[in-house]
Amino acid sequence: MTVKKILIVDDSLSLRLVVKMTLEGAGHTVLQAADSKQALDMLDGRQIDLVLSDLNMPVLDGLGLLEHIRQHPQYAATPVIMLTTQDAGHLQLRGQQQGISAWIIKPFEPPYLLAAIAQLTTR
């Protein structure tokens, strides 16, 4: 497995820590952002292989973040996985229209998340 640099964006510190432990345990490098603004500041030209984002965040939600990511030439094709408690079809459709790579409902099993990451980063 190739080590991937993954950005986790979630306003929940506890979720970020659980996901970070899962990803680092699988050999990935992890960056963390507590909100979309912090995430956008981190998308400053550095290599990011995948973004994991919460949907419901203050100021700018995950779909708004996705829109900004897709407008940035360097990250336009970067896989983005939405981690959310929301399973509303209209939100998933909007995410697909904006170029979401996967939609994972919380709570999720770590092996499922790792499998999704592996699939998206080996394309």
Secondary structure blueprint with pairings:
Elements: E1 5-9, H1 13-25, E2 29-33, H2 36-42, E3 50-54, H3 62-71, E4 80-84, H4 89-98, E5 102-105, H5 110-121
Parallel strand pairs: 1-2, 1-3, 3-4, 4-5
Helix pairs in contact: 2-3
What can you tell me about this protein's structure?
The chain has 123 residues and is α/β, with parallel strands linked by helices. The protein has helices at residues 13-25, 36-42, 62-71, 89-98, 110-121; strands spanning 5-9, 29-33, 50-54, 80-84, 102-105. Strands 2-1-3-4-5 form a 5-stranded parallel β-sheet, sandwiched between helices.
Share of helical residues: 40-55%
**Main sheet: strands, sense, barrel:** 5 strands, parallel
> If strands are numbered along the chain, what order do they take across the biggest sheet?
2-1-3-4-5
- The unreliable regions are none
Shape: globular
**Structural class by sheet pairing and helices:** alpha/beta
Question: Averaged pLDDT, please?
Answer: 91
Compute the number of helices.
5
Instruction: Give the topology string: H per helix, E per strand.
Output: EHEHEHEHEH
**Beta-strand segment tally:** 5
Radius of gyration: 13 Å
Report how far the terminal alpha carbons are from each other. 13 Å
Strand content: 15-25%
